[in-house]
Amino acid sequence: MVKFYSSTDTYSYPFPAVTLAYFLRYPNPYSTHVLSTDTISRHFDAETQRLTTIRLHLKRSKLPSAVQKLLPRSILGSSASGESQSYILEKSVVDIKEGWMDTESRNLEWTGVLSVVERQVFKRPIPTVPDEVKIFTGMEGAARRHGFINFSGNGAGTKVEDNGETTEVTSSVTLHSHIGETWKKKRQAAAEGSSDEEQPHKMGFLRSWGTHSLQRSIEKIGMTRTLRSQPNAREGMKVVLERMREGGLVAVLEGMRKDREAILAGRNLLKEGSRHTDDE
Amino acid sequence: MSASLAPECNEVKERYDTCFLKWYSEKFLRGTAKSDECDPLFKQYEQCLSKALKSRGIDTMLKEARDDNRENDAEHMRPKR
Questions:
Q1: Among A10, A88, A183, A215, which one has the highest count of C-beta atoms within 10 angstroms of its own C-beta?
Q2: Tell me, what's the pLDDT at A162?
Q3: Neighbours of A30 (CB within 10 A)
Q4: Which superkingdom (chain A) (predicted)?
């Protein structure tokens, strides 16, 4: 059983700016649940001009009450109250020559209950107007194709030029619940001699529900959350891009600093009535 | 800048992140990067972080996930591009 969600969107910002915003998207006013972001590996291939990055995000999360109701306390353990933190592993590859960024994020814990894999592919659009035409429309033709960000001296002054460039993004989320499957294996193992203390309880619970309908229900709940959180992820990116357009990297970093302080102080960054959800 | 999950690594992370952003926007995005100039700072950050990951027991979880990923990549992503 697998659930799949997919959407496409266009950012009215040039591709290089979008890739930069992706790396700088936390914290933002829509991501107050993201507690930390660490780069755990980074590799630059000079030949292909590709950059591969693996990052680890820590998010405050809440198990939906609907899931809590579905699962017995013996499985929930310390998360029975519903409050927990979860690690998200994010891999991204940026190819600046070919003009694409491919990203994938997945949860590290609870993958048996529900594995959520989010993929986003950003692409520099193929120009509809041939380059030769652009050259005649002005000397900035090349800048329109490659520039996008104005590098005035030091990097701190980096600004995004509003030149009408856009970036296409395709997002997809794959939800897959394996709940019950490992217990099937355990039952087999038990039949072959080894034993598992918790097994009778879990098996009784699962028999009463049916593994497949439980998986379906959990995937459905995951999908509901996905649909609710996707707009927030998009808005977060847009806030970062807007800051970049207004005041360059300096403004992005200043915004991040303020958001981080506000998160630490426990202030809600969004106006009343526009509550964010605790997941992405 | 975003916080590190290990507060003791915040300082070295900040130094690395600053270096990376400069390199990324001035060299990488322009297609003029020859090498990852921030690698020495990354090594320092990595050293601090790996201790933190180990003490929190996240390192094994990470290793498993990345091994899984590699298998998945090999399985599903080979014909890509």
A1: A215
A2: 58
A3: 27
A4: Eukaryota
Residue A271 CA neighbour count, 13 Å, CB half = 1
pLDDT band at A99 (very low <50, low <70, confident <90, very high): very high
Supply the pLDDT for residue B74.
59
Q: What is the rounded distance in angstroms from the CA atom of residue A137 to the CA atom of residue A60?
A: 50
Closest residue of A to B5, CA-based?
A36
pLDDT in tens, A110-119: 888 889 999 9
List the domains of chain A with CATH numbers: 2-279 (3.90.380)
Q: Residue A179 corresponds to which amino acid?
A: I
Nearest CA-CA distance, residue B75 and chain A, Å = 16
Query: By percentage, how much of chain B surpasses pLDDT 70?
Result: 84
Residues of chain B with Cβ-Cβ distance to A58 below 8 Å are 5
Q: Which of A172, A170, A165, A173 is nearest to A241 (CA)?
A: A165
| C-beta of residue B39 within 8 angstroms of C-beta of residue B15 | no
* pTM score of the predicted model: 0.80
A-chain residues within 8 Å CB-CB of B22?
154-155
Q: What is the DSSP string of A24-59?
A: T-SS-TT-TTEEEEEEEEEEEETTTTEEEEEEEEEE
Mean of the pLDDT values across residues B61-76? 71
Whether A241 and A149 have beta carbons less than 8 Å apart is answered as no
